[in-house]
Amino acid sequence: MTELDVGKLRADFPILSRTVRDGKPLVYLDSGATSQRPRQVLDAERAFLEQHNAAVHRGAHQLAEEATDAYESARARIARFVGVEPGEVVFVKNATEGVNLVAYAISNASIGYGAGDPASRFAVGPGDEIVVTEMEHHANLVPWQELCRRTGATLRWFSVGADGRLDLESDEARNLINERTKLVAFVHQSNVLGTVNPVEELVRRAREVGALVLLDSCQSVPHGPVNLAALGVDFAVFSGHKMLGPSGVGVLYGREDLLAAMPPFLTGGSMIELVRMEGSSYAPPPQRFEAGVPMTSQAVGLAAAVDYLTAIGMDVVAEHERELTSAALAGLAELPGVRIIGPTGLDDRGGAVSFVVDDVHAHDVGQVLDDEGVAVRVGHHCAWPLHRRFGVAATVRASFAVYNTVDEVRVLIDSVRTAQKFFGVA
Amino acid sequence: MQLNQMYQEIILDHYRNPHGAGLREPFDAESFQVNPTCGDEVTLRVSLKSNGTAATDTGDSLVVADVSYDALGCSISQAAASVLTDLVVGRSVAESMRILDAFQEMVQSRGTVEPDEDVLGDGVAFAGVAKYPARVKCALLGWMAFKDAVVRGTEGSGTAPGVNGAKQ
Known about the structure:
The complex is a heterodimer of chains A (about 425) and B (about 170).
Chain A: H1 6-10, E1 19-20, E2 24-25, E3 27-28, H2 39-51, H3 62-81, E4 89-92, H4 95-109, E5 129-133, H5 142-151, E6 154-158, H6 171-174, E7 181-187, H7 199-208, E8 212-216, H8 228-231, E9 235-239, E10 250-254, H9 256-261, E11 272-276, E12 279-282, H10 297-312, H11 314-333, E13 338-341, E14 352-357, H12 362-371, E15 374-375, E16 377-379, H13 384-389, E17 395-399, H14 406-422
Parallel strand pairs in A: 3-15, 5-6, 5-7, 7-8, 8-9
Antiparallel strand pairs in A: 1-2, 4-10, 9-10, 11-12, 13-14, 14-17, 16-17
Helix pairs in contact in A: 2-10, 3-10, 4-5, 11-14, 12-14
Chain B: H1 3-6, H2 9-16, E1 29-35, E2 40-50, H3 58-61, E3 62-72, H4 75-88, H5 93-107, H6 117-120, H7 136-155, E4 163-165
Helix pairs in contact in B: 2-4, 4-7, 5-7
């Protein structure tokens, strides 16, 4: 494995050299919310827009051809990055849209498609169950609540133990995925706890009962090698802006045979096969799920991000972030009055480290950190039920990316100590 | 350090020793408000009584007899609720709404409004919060609950707590 030269790599990210709050060097530890982008990504977007911009999949002119090639080449590179076929990659605005696309396709399949239609395999209704977990981001929870409300299906969930791991072994958990289960949707790596869930075991249980699996891989794909085909999931989502890429582009992966049978969500231009006043038929996937003129420079930028990460090597990225996580866990553990919410060891754990400081609200901790130049997220991080389960209103979360350094982790630890002193609790 | 501009000693004092905290009886209306971005919440009750005048406008004839609250939140939101009780208890409903408007204008001004200490008392300490847009909702959480409770109390539909996001 090659050693990562973080100093050299940081030079690719102009924003990392700026200062904040009266000259403090920026310590950006909020990549779980959105990551920063290297020049290579910015340049790729700019080059596309300066040389090749046109609406893709339409027009007979040279620019339209070049733009379409760039868009489809981006799809192919991103597909390869996560071990799937280009035809299985649907571009969406972000992971949230990806989850909603599947939820609405299921709901569309549940009404107005006859039993003989291929879409009927997705239909859900009263008596059927959707299974999620208590650690889901709202993006992988609320769409399923809404699907259940619309269709009469029932939402059930795995609970989370005090150690930040899913309870898979209690009697209740053992029976959670059963013959009524139609879909199991869960997060690969928790955006709050850092917990990496046992995909293989959950996929196995889903397969036993013929349920589909959707994986929220927003916090795993940017941080280590992920092969979605090898994981055996049916659907997966991730967002470009969390993996050094642009905002406004994300990916829904769907297994080829499933996408082929799935009814559309958004309809209109680009996604049709034949349109008559009386009704229409639809293009094969992935176009069926990409209505309207899609985001293009963003897709090109995301492919550049994937190339950038691939050049570093995802195993190198994972190893580096493991070192950062280790330093953070150790440093926070040494501070009296600081409690980590989530696994305290490195096994099956990624680089989102959330914690509470006794007698200082997370918002107040975050404010002191900000004053020291340290950017973290405070609040419930769009995982409100999970915070309720741990009996806290809000946590402070530091989240790492490949460009962070162990020195930055030290600044974080020192700044937490400063916050404790400022509020008189240390 | 810019931090001291926001966390003025007055704010930290109110945070450590909040005035009027706790939920009390009797009350005319209650409001429950949450800040959806951070999960902070406040349950706030108001008790209103007639001031004995013949004023036809209820805003002038009703006085804020008590404000009691249970708040879960950061130092800014807790201190703001504490200052609120100091500023509005004993005032007419109409006056309390004028104070509320002045407080809201100040914290939403991004630092462009010079606060009037005669109107806002300890509330002027929150002028520094105006420079941190992310914290404005914290300062307003209790105040929005007060506004909502007063509306409920004066419209006579008072006891059902609302579940509304805090409005800026």
